[in-house]
Amino acid sequence: MRRRRRVVLWAAALAGYAFLYVPLIIVVAYSFNNSRLNAEWVGFTLEWYDKLFHDQDMLIAASNSLAIALVASIISTLLGTAAGVAMYRYPSRLLSVLVLAPIAIPEILMGVSLLIFFVLLNLTLGLVSVALAHIAFCIGFVAIVVRARLAGMDETLTEAARDCGASPWNTFRYITLPLIMPGVIAGALMAFTLSIDDFVITFFTAGAGTVTLPLQIYSMIKIAVTPEVNAVSTLLMLLTLALIIIASKLSPTLLRSE
Amino acid sequence: MIVVAVHTPSRLGRWLVSGPPLAYLIVFFALPSLIMVLASFRTPGEFGGLAPLIEEGKLDLNLESYARFFSESVYAQIFLKSFGYALLTTLFCLTLAYPLASLIARSSRRYRDLLLLLVVLPFWSNFLIRIYAWMILLGPNAALARTVNRVLAWFGHDPVPLLFSAFAVLVCLVYVHLPFMVLPLYANLEKHDQALLDAAQDLGANAWQRFWRITFPLSLPGVYAGAALVFIPAFGIFAIPDILGGPEDSLIGNVIKQQFLETRDWPFGSVLSIVLTVVALAFAGLAAWVARGNLRTPSSARGSRA
Fold first, then answer.
1. What is the ipTM of this complex?
2. Which carries the bigger pLDDT value, residue A239 or residue B109?
3. What are B160-193's pLDDT values in tens digits?
4. Is there a smaller number of Cβ atoms within 10 Å at the N or the C end of chain B?
């Protein structure tokens, strides 16, 4: 009786995992498929990757995405770390709401409100507006990771440092910061991943002339499904998965529900 | 520079730490949201955007876009349709997430992190790639569509397209949001006390009764949290119907996108965005309120056992 229930549970869970992974595995498999149609396996080829690396539009999109992600992750890590420390040391309702609301509301709202904002400011939509928007939604994710790290920290260490006469800055620099560093790095990797992957907010804030990898993928799949999309998807997945696995090793709380 | 005052929480330290992120979020989140609320009371400009704020000495603030929203029933219908899609997504996610979350909660500690990581990883792969994957899977030449249509042909039914349909939209909505349901559900189920189930079994409850009378009621806070996490993003989605849906499957997110990027009627687009926010937050508030009411159940159940 008990065993039969376990089997049923395992079967249901296995179906759940299959549902999660089969679509992604098919995308990866067909990136090596020697056929223009994403319909059945014909033979192995690297043609689509070769095409990808000679596709000028794709290379521009990739360099735009990397530049935006680099800038957005650095600035949002600085601001997000400060926000995480502030939320832990000086809890305030205003800060918590402002940090968490961009994560909680539907993405499209942030996209359209920033579009209105940038256009009214006469800021030309492009790399800068996209980076500014990405920073705004990444701060919250970094802050959550950093705050979780601080909450797990031994408070007596900072008190000991202060008792020994260390200034607040030195206490932070030599005690707190090294202890929360794994959380800060995990937050930075997360921000980088979120920025390079973002489609919705980028879609509204990029304007007509600027293309990032997700925007390029979008315009390609709106026209036709080609294995080149599979190839770029595979590479992008490899990059983000590597970053997230490193981040989750540094900050195990990343995996817990927040 | 970040200064943390431990002994004497100084005002200066507090502002040096919380000031910069606060300032950034006020400028790039609170202010744009406020401007959008204001924009909903304005008149659309002749060439899109907004009409001048002050024209012929008159301040341009009116309720016309709101009046339009309430007088043209097509928008209420689209809201209702989006609500239905989001609700169905939430229910399907719950059905799929329950066995996954309870398996992870019951597995030995050694495998727990790995099993959890496996649920979360797809969430971290690109959103568009996950939509694109369903374009391939449901495509007319793919094995799934051919099999389905072969079966339908046996029953003398005309072939149906799987892609660009309400079915494709719903499958992908469930696919994309499933991790949001598994995580809170797992976090809840992990804390359940096995002794309660053993006691129920000793008293003669069968597996079905134990699930519906003990496990499920105790897991309700996790269910409500997951429901809010799935419902809110699913309600405002635009990329999935845009890519996988047919012309009939436009949801409120698509109409908002259209108002801002194609029609360029900002005031009306802002009205739709505000209604979307209000409905989404009301749903989240409702979930939180119901969860709080039910939180008493687990503690009292535990209390009566002690």
1. 0.86
2. A239
3. 777 888 888 999 999 999 988 888 888 888 888 7
4. C
Check if B120 contacts A (Cβ < 8 Å): yes
Domain B66-305: CATH architecture, name and number where available? Orthogonal Bundle (1.10)
Task: List the domain boundaries for chain A.
Answer: 55-255
Distance (Å) from the C-alpha of residue B300 to the closest C-alpha of chain A?
Answer: 25
Task: Look up the pTM and report it.
Answer: 0.85
Q: Where do the H-state alpha helices sit in A55-106? A: 56-89, 93-104
Q: Could you report the per-residue pLDDT of B221-236, keeping only the tens digit for each?
A: 888 888 888 898 899 8
CA distance B175 to chain A (A): 7
Nearest CA in chain A to B275: A109
Task: Locate the domains of chain B by residue range.
Answer: 66-305
Chain A hits for B270, Cβ within 8 Å: 112, 116
Considering the domain delimited by A55-255, tell me its CATH architecture: Orthogonal Bundle (1.10)
Cβ distance A172 to B139 less than 8 Å, yes or no, reads: no
pLDDT of residue B174: 93
Q: Do A237 and B35 touch (CB under 8 A)?
A: no
